[in-house]
Structures are given as structure tokens and as C-alpha cells.
Write a structure and sequence with these properties.
Rossmann fold; N-(1-d-carboxylethyl)-l-norvaline Dehydrogenase, domain 2; about 550 residues; alpha/beta; SH3 type barrels; five-stranded antiparallel β-sheet
């Protein structure tokens, strides 16, 4: 690609990894986001998707010279919406420029008119003064009075002329802070995009249709807020950064559903397999937000409540997949995930070209890779999307979604992810989300075991467990998780919010992940042994906080 001269504010076509060129704008990155080392690159904000990324110069093309070429090779609906957003932005920018230029011209005309009147007034005064002086020479006493009068007029000039004489600038030029009110397009773009990016507003008429397919919940679609500057500051404080395989950095903002307000549900038919602690909350939120959902569960009775809420009933996983556009699944472990896909009347039997399958189960990378291969071999599309959270967060629609696989499918799931979660991350190729999820749960499970260990140590040494909790809640470890799990222990209430057997399963898989790359995980291994003891004490179906009982028996 030939080298191009680009600068801040330019509209461009950006090439992001293996995806087609997309229209965007070169903008200032957040202050705390460092520029990648190596080749020269720019921070680009992509229209329509609301995604941001560092893009290398050789992967960028100027927008206008290549517009027709790109439109010919990209025919998708989302692509057209992105191009429409660019054109609407250009119209808005042009309108602002014309208004600014018109205002500037009017201001200069007004000032020139005022100064011309001032010149005429001064000339009239000078002419009158000359006439009066002529009369003085001819007259006597009357002439002296006129001289005095003229002298007085000269000493008290008009306010406009006095101000002009006191000003150091030349006549006819506007003040320094007003002289460049007419701004060329590139300057306008720079003014809009530098400093506070919140000043950049997308037109609502363009943004609304894009809502259906936006992969990042319109994190930076600031026209949807009444106070964009405040909202942008709130968003940037919660930026999450993930490195993709392409080497570019993608940004997603947390709590995006709250920023966006209402959700426009996709018109695609949604299927959901598995109505456990997590799946039940997810389906409930999908229905609340207006999605068309068909459900299936191994224990059919669990479907009844959702049928009453408007869901449709699928008799088998294969039937659900064959009748829906996108089918989600959330089951307990690798064996259940494989059985669901490969078993009798399973998912694979309903897959045909174009059908989409999203596995939200927490499993190992090998399992999810195997499932992806068999789905894709039948012409289907695959995305893994395990979720971080618990039953309460699932019910509240506040899960964190970790996705990997088919990027286009990730984008198609946008409204679903908005309904069920507060944040989503796209992590690249299949297997990455599974690995990340296991690491997250390894940390969480180890922390829970440490909390239980600390509370039991406090008890046996004669210290107040409640006081320990109060101290922890006032320190750096303070969190909702810490407080809730400690309250469970203090109250002896182990109603499951996250099954103990599942956190132990995740610890086991995380340890195996470490072994596969010869990386030690001694803390996770120690915690895993404590959970195994708790399982031996019949705590499997209790909340993970029941690991406490492994220390007191």
C-alpha cells in the first residue's frame, strides 16, 4: 500500500486484522492508553461499531479517494449504516462550518460598518472644526466662544474613536481572539476531536438503527446522553483494554447498558439451552428486553416459568437450533457441553450453513476448540462466551461476558449481550475466552478459600469474626464479593449463588491449564484441595462460601 499523509481528525478506511476495511476517524486516544511500540500507527474510532483501535499506517486509507472502491466490495447492512453515519457526520460538520463562516462574515461586516461610521463621524467633526476656526478669524467675541466650543469637542472624542485610538491593532482588523472564526474542514475536525472527545456527537437519526448490531453497546455513542462531557469522563474511568491477536488494542467501556438506557432487541430468533443458576437469569433478561426466545432444558419443568413469560418451548437441542438463528447454551462442565452438541438429538444435528451457536459454559480450551471445529465443519458459526458472575448478577443483567471466535457473530449478539451483561470483551481466537475465564475463577476460588481460612483462624485464636470483616471492609480488600461471602459464613447461610462443585471444577481446569504450559499454580492447587474436602463433606450443592466448613470439621 502506498504511503499516505494522515493526521488527527482525518476520515479513513481502517484494516483491523482479517476483517474488511471499515470507515473511521483518527482521534486522540485516552490519556492513560499508551501507543504501541514499533511501526507508526494512529488511534481510530470506527463508525457504526463504536470500536476503537490502534491501527498501523499501512493499514489505513483516506476516506474520500477510496469510498467508491470500498462500497463496491462491502455490501452488508452494518457496513452501509457505518457509511451513512460518516456522511451524516460530514453534513453536520459542513453545516457547522458554514454557520461559523456566516457568523464570522457578519461580525466582520458589522465591525467594518461601525468603524466606517466612526471614520465618517471623525471626518465630519474635523470639517466642522475647520469651518468654525475660519469663522473665528473673521469674528471677535462670538469667534472666541466658537473656538472654546470646538476645543471642547476635540478634547472629548466619541467612545468608539477613543477606543480605536487606545487599541494597539490596526484599523479594520478584528481582535486577535476573533480573527479566525472561519475554520476550514480539517481544523473543524481537529477542534471537535481534540481535548474532550465528548464534544463529538453522533446524530441520533443515524445511531438508532445501528443499535441492533453494535458489538460494544455504543460505549462512545455520546449523543444518547444529555451531558456528554460528564458521561464520557465516567466511561473513561472504566475503560477495559484487551490485546487482540492482530496486535491492535480494542477498548470496551464498563457499565455500558446503563449509559445506553433502553435496548433495541435483535430481530433474530434466539434459542437458549440450559436453565441453571446462570441460564435462568439470562433468559429472563432476554425476554424482558423483547427478544424472541425458544428454550430447552434437560429437566423440562424448568421451562414452564419462561413459557409463561413468553418463551417458546423446544423439544430437543436439535429442534431449537434448527428453528432459531442464534442458539446460546450454558451448561455445567466439559462433559455436559460435549453431550449437548454431540449427543442424540444434539446441537450438531440442527446445524446447517448459517446457523449460529454460542457456548457460554465455563470449560477448558480443548473442549471449546473441539466444539467449534464440529460446528464450523457443518457450515455453522461458533462463538464461545463464558460469563463471569453469579446468580444474583445474572438475574440483574450485570454479567461480564468474555467472547472469542467468530467476530461477526459476536457483533450479531450485541443486543443479547446488552440484556444479560454490563460489559463484554472480544478476546480473539477460539480458546482464549475459556483460558481467561478459568484464570478469573481460579483467582476467585483461591480468594474465597483464603477468606474462609482467615475467619476460622480468627475464631480459634479468640478474635471476633465480625470485627475481622469490619476491618477488611474498611481496607483495600473491601468488595461486594468479600462482604457477601463473609456474611454467608457468619449467618451460616450457604444457599447457592455459585455452586461449590463448579468453582472446584474451574480450579481443577485452571491447574491443568498451568500444567499444559509448565506454569506452577501452587496457590490454586492448595485451594483445590480444600474444596475437594468440602465436597467430601457433602457441600457440593451449596454456595462456594461453604468451603468454610472444610476448616471446621
Amino acid at each position: 500500500m502506498a504511503a499516505v499523509s494522515l493526521r488527527l481528525g482525518d476520515l479513513v478506511w481502517g484494516k483491523l486484522g482479517r476483517y474488511p476495511p471499515w470507515p473511521g476517524k483518527i482521534v486522540n486516544p485516552p490519556k492513560d492508553l499508551k501507543k504501541p511500540r514499533g511501526k507508526k500507527c494512529f488511534f481510530v474510532k470506527f463508525f457504526g461499531t463504536e470500536d476503537h483501535a490502534w491501527i498501523k499506517v499501512e493499514q489505513l486509507k483516506p476516506y474520500h479517494p477510496h469510498k467508491e472502491e470500498m462500497i463496491k466490495i462491502n455490501k452488508g447492512k452494518r457496513f452501509q449504516q457505518a457509511v451513512d453515519a460518516v456522511e451524516e457526520f460530514l453534513r453536520k460538520t459542513k453545516g457547522k462550518d458554514q454557520a461559523s463562516s456566516h457568523n464570522s462574515t457578519e461580525e466582520r461586516n458589522r465591525r467594518n460598518s461601525s468603524e466606517e461610521r466612526g471614520k465618517q463621524s471623525a471626518g465630519e467633526e474635523k470639517r466642522k472644526g475647520s469651518l468654525s476656526e475660519g469663522k473665528v478669524k473673521k469674528g471677535t467675541g462670538e469667534g472666541k466662544k466658537r473656538v472654546s466650543s470646538v476645543s471642547s469637542e476635540r478634547g472629548s472624542k466619541s467612545p468608539l474613536k477613543r477606543a480605536q485610538d487606545q487599541s494597539p491593532r490596526k484599523r479594520g482588523r478584528p481582535p486577535k481572539d476573533e480573527k479566525d472564526l472561519t475554520i476550514p474542514e480539517s481544523s473543524t475536525v481537529k477542534r471537535v476531536m481534540t481535548g474532550t472527545v465528548a464534544g463529538f456527537k453522533w446524530p441520533p437519526s443515524v445511531s438508532e438503527p445501528v443499535k441492533d448490531s453494535d458489538p460494544h453497546f455504543h460505549h462512545f455513542l455520546l449523543s444518547q446522553t444529555e451531558k456528554p462531557a460528564v458521561c464520557y469522563q465516567a466511561i473513561t474511568k472504566k475503560l477495559k483494554v484487551c490485546e487482540e491477536e492482530t496486535g491492535s488494542t480494542s477498548i470496551q467501556a464498563a457499565d455500558s447498558t446503563a449509559v445506553n438506557g433502553s435496548i433495541t432487541p435483535t430481530d433474530k430468533k434466539i434459542g437458549f439451552l440450559g436453565l441453571g443458576l446462570m441460564g435462568s437469569g439470562i433468559v429472563s433478561n432476554l425476554l424482558k428486553m423483547g427478544h424472541t426466545v425458544t428454550v430447552w432444558n434437560r429437566t423440562a419443568e424448568k421451562c414452564d416459568l419462561f413459557i409463561q413469560e413468553g418463551a417458546r418451548l423446544g423439544r430437543t437441542p436439535a429442534e431449537v437450533v434448527s428453528t432459531c438463528d442464534i442458539t446460546f447454551a450454558c451448561v455445567s462442565d466439559p462433559k455436559a457441553a460435549k453431550d449437548l452438541v454431540l449427543g442424540p438429538s444434539g446441537v450438531l444435528q440442527g446445524i446447517r450453513p448459517g446457523k449460529c451457536y454460542v457456548d457460554m459454559s465455563t470449560v477448558d480450551a480443548d473442549t471449546v476448540t473441539e466444539l467449534a471445529q464440529v460446528i464450523v465443519s457443518r457450515g455453522g458459526r461458533f462463538l464461545e462466551a463464558p460469563v463471569s458472575g453469579n446468580q444474583q448478577l445474572s438475574n440483574d443483567g450485570m454479567l461480564v461476558i468474555l467472547a472469542a471466535g467468530d467476530r461477526g457473530l459476536y457483533e450479531d449478539c450485541s443486543s443479547c449481550f446488552q440484556a444479560m451483561g454490563k460489559t463484554s470483551f472480544f478476546l480473539g481466537e477460539v480458546g482464549n475466552a475459556a483460558k481467561m475465564m478459568l484464570i478469573v475463577n481460579m483467582v476467585q476460588g483461591s480468594f474465597m478459600a483464603t477468606i474462609a481460612e482467615g475467619l476460622t483462624l480468627a475464631q480459634v485464636t479468640g478474635q471476633s469474626q465480625q470485627t475481622l470483616l469490619d476491618i477488611l471492609n474498611q481496607g483495600q480488600l473491601a468488595s461486594i464479593f468479600l462482604d457477601q461471602k463473609c456474611q454467608n459464613i457468619l449467618q451460616g447461610n450457604f444457599k447457592p449463588d455459585f455452586y461449590l462443585k463448579y468453582i472446584q471444577k474451574d480450579l481443577r481446569l485452571a491447574i491443568a491449564l498451568g500444567d499444559s504450559v509448565n506454569h506452577p499454580t501452587p496457590m490454586a492447587a492448595a485451594a483445590n484441595e480444600v474444596y475437594k474436602r468440602a465436597k467430601a463433606l457433602d457441600q457440593s450443592d451449596n454456595d462456594m462460601s461453604a468451603v468454610y466448613r472444610a476448616y471446621i470439621h
